[in-house]
Amino acid sequence: MPFRIRKRAPPGADDEEKPPSAESRRPRPHKLIGIRRTKEKLHLKCGWDGCKYSSKKMELFNSHVGEHVPVLSADGSDYVRCRWEDCDHYSSDQRELRRHILYHAFHRKVTAIARNVQRRNDMLPCQLASGELHVMPELSDPFRCLWDGCDTEFDDPQAYYWHVEHHIDCYYERSAKDNSQASLKCLWQDCSLTVAIQYRLKEHVRTHSQEKWAACPKCGNLFSCNQKFFDHCIRQVPVEDMQYQCSHCLKRFATERLLRNHIRNHINNYRCTVCGMTCPSPGSLNKHIAFRHSEAASFACSICSRGFKTDWDRNKHELTHDPSRRTYCPTCPYSTVEPSRLKIHMKTKHTGVPRSWYRCHLCDAKYGKGLTLTQHLKRRHHLAVPQGHVRFNYKRDKDGQYRLQTLRYESLDVAEQVLGGPAEPAGAGAASAEPDVLALTCGEGEVPDTITTDDGRELRLPERVRVALGTGARVLVCVTGEQVQLLALTDASQEMDDPDDPDSVMMVVEGGTAPPAAAAGPAAAH
Questions:
Q1: For each successive 10 residues of the chain (526 residues), what is the average pLDDT?
Q2: CB 447 within 8 A of CB 514
Q3: Res 365: pLDDT
Q4: C-alpha–C-alpha distance, residues 480 and 414, integer Å
Q5: From CA 437, how far away is CA 516, in angstroms rounded?
Q6: How many angstroms separate the most distant Cα atoms in the chain?
Q7: Which of 459, 438, 439, 457 shows the shortest CA–CA distance to 449?
Q8: For 63, left (φ over 0), alpha (ψ -120 to 50), or beta?
Q9: What's the burial of 33, exposed, middle or buried (CB within 10 Å: 0-12/13-18/19+)?
Q10: Could you give the CA distance from residue 157 to residue 142 in angstroms, rounded to a whole number?
């Protein structure tokens, strides 16, 4: 009997309400409890040196903080330090200093909202240090509204975000009068996205305005939505408490949704039309094209004028010009400007932890770097790298050693292109249909041979998927076109993520007697 697709009821819908306990604070997926932004109760306390002002209204608080902005000389001879608590920012530009100080006020607002989110959802707290709590983003340029030819500049971030939101509200009202609100087009400069509802349009425009929705009360990191703030906290749980494991790279995750999002990074959906290399995302394809097929290096170092392909590489390089950013190993003369490299150095040189080698799968050779193993595989074993690549990819095995990655997930459309199938559209890179990652469970009954999707397609289940379903575990599969691939097993007793999230759709089997099989835990790798 085929599958039928249905939404799960919200977790606990049929259960009696129980008081919260210590067990309820363990890492688990759940739908975040939220309220309207305008209904959030704010407690905003001014952080200016010696000021005791507080307010529950952002309009009053923002106006108050603006009164703290000092007046600088027009010739730029003044060099003033921001007096917000724990902030060491200096500026000689009147407008830049105003933007910086008013962003402190906005940061207080989104921090208060994040604290409310934590309290409502009984979230695990952030475990990171608070050293970055008052580090503001770079605000050298004014905020510019590019909605439908507006081009207004702001030095007040909160006023800017309210202004952009007002544009959307007015646009929606006009669309409602014209009976065209069923299709809302983003009117931001050079954007042509169309959405169905006003909320989605506001959510999308925040990617243009760079408005943040929450700030961690502990470490100060900014997030574009409450869900990302939740992910920020849940990712910090101990590894032993992470119940979900990727069967491909063995990385562990605290929630099933994070595992599903990660699995998409292993599926190549985009193919370069120049060399044929396949990539998992548009961003990775664009990066490939920039580094392999373009000579442009448009991001120049402000100190030595050296050019770089991306602003991230440029910013990373500029740290080498600042001696104060260099950190030193306490045991040996090693030093670096990247804290992550110091951690790697300490782990490999001074902790006694066995080193992770890059090992050849065809002989006993081992190397300290993947590049050296790539050269060995080419020269000694005459292996060729995949199409479009300049090196092999390696993954870490259960024993902690790195070995050649011999399995790649390609979407059906991309596989046809690589094997000489249907032609793809012109352009730097072509995208295939986005794969669906679905969670399958089998009720009491025989596991069927096929599934029927909500659009009427009948898909045949591979034997590996049928065997996995017979264990009683929840099975994650990738559905691309007519192809069904087994990705991972998870614990069917755990609650699903947000039931209103399209990714949380479950396919439930009904049939005869299920075949007996060995039980599989939530972190089983197949």
A1: 37 42 45 79 94 95 94 77 89 91 95 92 82 69 93 95 94 82 85 88 92 91 90 87 81 85 82 83 84 84 87 85 85 86 83 84 91 90 80 84 78 55 40 59 71 73 80 73 69 44 39 32 33
A2: yes
A3: 93
A4: 10
A5: 26
A6: 84
A7: 459
A8: alpha
A9: exposed
A10: 9
pLDDT at position 60: 96
The β-bridge relationship of strands 278-279 and 270-272 is: antiparallel
pLDDT for the residue 23: 43
Exposed (0-12), middle (13-18) or buried (19+): which is 276, by Cβ within 10 Å?
Answer: middle
Domains of the chain: 40-236 (3.30.160.60), 239-266+433-509 (no CATH)
Q: How far apart are CA 307 and CA 288, in angstroms?
A: 17
Check: CB of residue 424 under 8 Å from CB of residue 415. no
CA–CA gap between residue 280 and residue 295 (Å, rounded): 23
Closest CA to 230 of 39, 28, 40, 35: 28
- Which pair of structure tokens corresponds to residue 511? 């049939």
- pTM check: above 0.85: no
CA–CA dist 62, 55 (Å, integer): 10
Contacts for 465 with CB less than 8 Å, ≥ 6 apart? 440, 475, 477, 484, 486
CB atoms within 10 A of CB 212: 22
**Confidence at residue 342, expressed as pLDDT on a 0 to 100 scale:** 86
According to the model, what pLDDT value does residue 311 have?
80
Residues in the chain: 526
- Residue 181, pLDDT score: 62
How far is it, in rounded angstroms, from Cα 110 to Cα 216?
A: 8
Whole-angstrom distance, CA of residue 268 vs CA of residue 279: 5
88 vs 71: CA distance, rounded Å = 18
Nearest in space to 368 (alpha carbons), one of 355, 379, 351 = 355
CB atoms within 10 A of CB 290: 15
Q: Torsion over CA of 233, 234, 240 and 244, rounded to 10 degrees?
A: -160
